[in-house]
């Protein structure tokens, strides 16, 4: 095969993702680090562990412990990159998401994994693609706390929060969380580094995947307010284009609320997939996150 | 003219606005009182008083004092009615708006008046129609405060907030407010009861208005956090379907931020218009709000 | 009551609806005539006549004939006013709607009446308010015909068209129409002038309506392509904020498809409501549309 | 490095792109072939060839001929996959896009290349990612033709079509095309197979790209109506997050309109990038598309 060298007079294009240009001013997302301030509303529940296992592709295995545990998390975010320019043009900073997390294992470690996720902005889709979150567009809403009670709960005992998720003009999920007491944790399912796949299908008709990588990803830093927990009610609905309702709610574990500030600044490549199977990424030792 | 009596077997239809039905479960908005929790970002400025006067229909006159003062206010709301059901289905509760307020006078009193307003939900349009706000749909965004600084300002000295407004795929306004110190007021332009018109154009071709009413409207109760003030920058842009940019910013007065809880529970009819002019509404005495 | 005269130096404000300004360039809708080019997909069915009657306010009565007949119509429109400026800025011209029509009677004549309607643009809401259509915002989609079959049906025998309606993130209706043959009509339910109410609730707490008018409204001119009819399937879904599903589909009459060009240029005031009941509008004789 | 074999009892996950599941019912896009019926509005113009060259990453070079030629194309699509299920749930089938195409060269052949593209649905983003189109979300509108003239042009001499594009609440482009005569072609810039990159940035902080592939892509089949051409007017606007306006319109070549039916069923891998440069993909011979 012939090797092609880059022409010296061809501009090196700039931009973190796409489209890349000479001046780098068009990329759908800028370079990390990416920073977030937001509110998380979580419902944890147990489903049939087989329904979780059927969502875990090679080389992942089910979590050894409580393999049927699932978290459905709504998040209301404001986000920015270095320079914080997005904050003053908030159409570029604010977005909402609803995502489903399970646990799994790889190379002797437990990871969290997002199996379904919906967002309402394109920069959120793009950051997700980079981080291996399988992002689709949807319509999600969650009650906001506010110091004034007229039309808002507070993050306190008795505060009641609702959340909904829809996609393709069909409602997919509804939840109500009634806060009862402060909590040591904001749930446990989404508490590990993520183990996500990044894949390009082969471009040729019927071709195998052109690229498959297993990555781990997690926040570089997190600051959080007190976590609150309470009772939760969760309803999942069918859709011809979704399978969320296969994760039937057999047992609600609990509901949680927490405000957080987060910075994300890169992850780690764990393994690369090929026709021969999966190989640990060079430089990654078994047992390393 | 023949008088038509209501048939006894015709159901009395229920519902505050439209559509009215036997069971009243379809109305675009429910009965007041309506409650709101939200954040207000305000820029006050002065324009040519003639540009304000040209927006005041009969029977209003310019404010005797500082007639060129204008407020452009962005608001990020969660709202509900009696029973607070909307809070747990927040697609029905949350909306944003951006509106332009001036002052005027009627029957010896000074009123505020909203001359332009854009919102992003239909229930907000409907409440506005009832209250005489000339609501159109738009896309408006304002920086949110958050306890965690990663991607958010705080409502404190040094907190910087941006806001934008667009409609018809054209940006109409951008503002940046940099908070400096606590303030006695949240501005002065929007501090009076509103004097608004409610109008139906005649249905016949070329017909005069079928209905014209001047109403006053204001909050039944307001709770507010400390107001903050600071420097403000405001840019208005042209559009073939808007005239906002005629209110040229000759002098910025200041920027303000405040969190509020509000209840609205009705207003007052001031005058009714007809081919013969305007007449005080029966029961309303001159000088009464 | 004191009479207020308009001050001679107060500008006469311009604009068909709101907001009115000195130059008239801000009105949410311009003066009629309004023109439309579009595609109509109709499903006609019969429901319990009581479920129709419960939607008819005074002074209307049920249609003497086939009182349980209902049409659910999806429309995909491009529209404009005099000068056709909207056509070159099509965000201002294109909109979709889904609406429910029944029949009723007033003063010895049969009328059509839109009992529920959802649209996806603000100018469509405003034209609807003027014409007495009870417009709310929703998300509606209908299959488009296209000369090339790759991803489209044609308006011909065998052409299959689907349509959906959602509001508040809940699906409200789905239909499938399979065209079979040309038809003399495009259905019968929406074939009469409309009898609609235009109402302002009283502004005072607990006050009676400030304005109530019964109007008739219909196209000034219509050009239409051949109507096609065929089998139809229609499903209505429950929602806590809608009552569409009370119009249970007892018997599908048929489905229709037609392309039309329409101009609307005013309607007629039939009656005005007051605490004393309804009175024919001055100049309107019984029996006149 | 340790090789990891897939566990035999690990389900093989189904789904063309993401998320992949046991039953394959969640993928954001289904398997090709993908079919499209739609209308294309094109404006071709010339800009400074350096402004095109600065958008061509290795291993591409400028087109040898007319290197400054650009096409800005608006498309109004209905699309589906095998089984055509999307057509009856048209929220999943209909989308609009606006995209910018230039020409380039690789291995002795001329290709077209999409340098910027905005769409309004998530399935359109996902198909674009697979095909190497750098898709972002935007708001785009184009005048629709319709048999009835009331509010529509026809695809004929004298037909006038407008189109707009906005993203991030800023208008980016506006065009008006006035059709004059039938045309042999629908423009020339977008007439070659596409040469696109598919890239994953490295997941580690500061890491080089994890994957970079040059692919070619084109329709498997196209049926088209007569192409029409005429005069065109095009305006590009600045935005802090876009560089479209760098492609200054020095000379308008012309405007075009055409209705098409298209099927896409895979492309070809041309070259793979690595730290060592670009290598032709195994099996691809120089000169092959």
Short description, anyone?
The structure is a homotetramer. Helix content of chain A is about 5%, strand content about 45%.
Structure description:
4 copies of one chain form a homotetramer. The first copy, chain A, is mainly beta. Helices cover 5% and strands 47% of the residues of chain A. Chain A has a single domain (29-193, 220-264), classed as Acetoacetate decarboxylase-like (Beta Barrel), CATH 2.40.400. The first copy, chain A, is built from 2 helices and 17 strands. In chain A, the strands form 2 sheets. In chain A, strands 2, 3, 4, 5, 6, 7, 8, 9, 10, 13, 14 and 15 form a 12-stranded mixed β-sheet that branches. In chain A, strands 11-12-16-17 form a 4-stranded antiparallel β-sheet, covered by helices on one side. In chain A, strand 9 (160-167) and strand 10 form a beta hairpin. The radius of gyration of chain A is 20 Å and the shape is globular. The relative contact order of chain A is 0.19.
State the main characteristics.
homotetramer; 289 residues; Acetoacetate decarboxylase-like; four-stranded antiparallel β-sheet; 17 strands
């Amino acid at each position: 095969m012939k090797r092609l060298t880059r022409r010296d007079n061809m501009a090196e294009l700039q931009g973190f993702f796409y489209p890349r240009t000479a001046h780098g001013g068009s990329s759908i997302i800028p370079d990390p680090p990416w920073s977030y301030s937001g509110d998380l509303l979580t419902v944890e529940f147990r489903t049939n562990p087989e329904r979780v296992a059927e969502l875990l592709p090679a080389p992942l295995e089910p979590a050894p412990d409580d393999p049927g545990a699932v978290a459905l998390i709504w998040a209301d975010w404001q986000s920015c990159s270095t320079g914080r320019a997005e904050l003053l043009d908030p159409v570029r900073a604010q977005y909402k998401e609803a995502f489903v997390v399970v646990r799994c294992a790889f190379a002797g470690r437990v990871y969290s994994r997002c199996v379904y996720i919906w967002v309402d902005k394109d920069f959120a889709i793009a950051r997700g693609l980079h981080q291996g979150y399988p992002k689709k567009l949807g319509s999600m809403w969650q009650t906001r706390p506010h110091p004034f009670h007229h039309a808002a709960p507070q993050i306190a005992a008795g505060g009641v929060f609702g959340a909904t998720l829809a996609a393709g003009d069909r409602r997919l999920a509804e939840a109500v969380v009634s806060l009862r007491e402060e909590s040591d944790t904001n749930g446990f399912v989404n508490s590990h580094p993520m183990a996500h796949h990044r894949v390009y299908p082969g471009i040729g008709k019927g071709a195998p995947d052109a690229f498959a990588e297993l990555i781990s990803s997690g926040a570089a830093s997190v600051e959080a307010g007190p976590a609150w927990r309470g009772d939760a009610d969760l309803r999942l609905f069918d859709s011809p284009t979704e399978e969320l309702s296969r994760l039937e709610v057999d047992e609600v574990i609990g509901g949680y609320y927490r405000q957080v500030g987060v910075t994300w600044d890169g992850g780690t490549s764990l393994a690369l997939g090929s026709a021969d199977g999966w190989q640990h990424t060079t430089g990654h030792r078994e047992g390393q996150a």
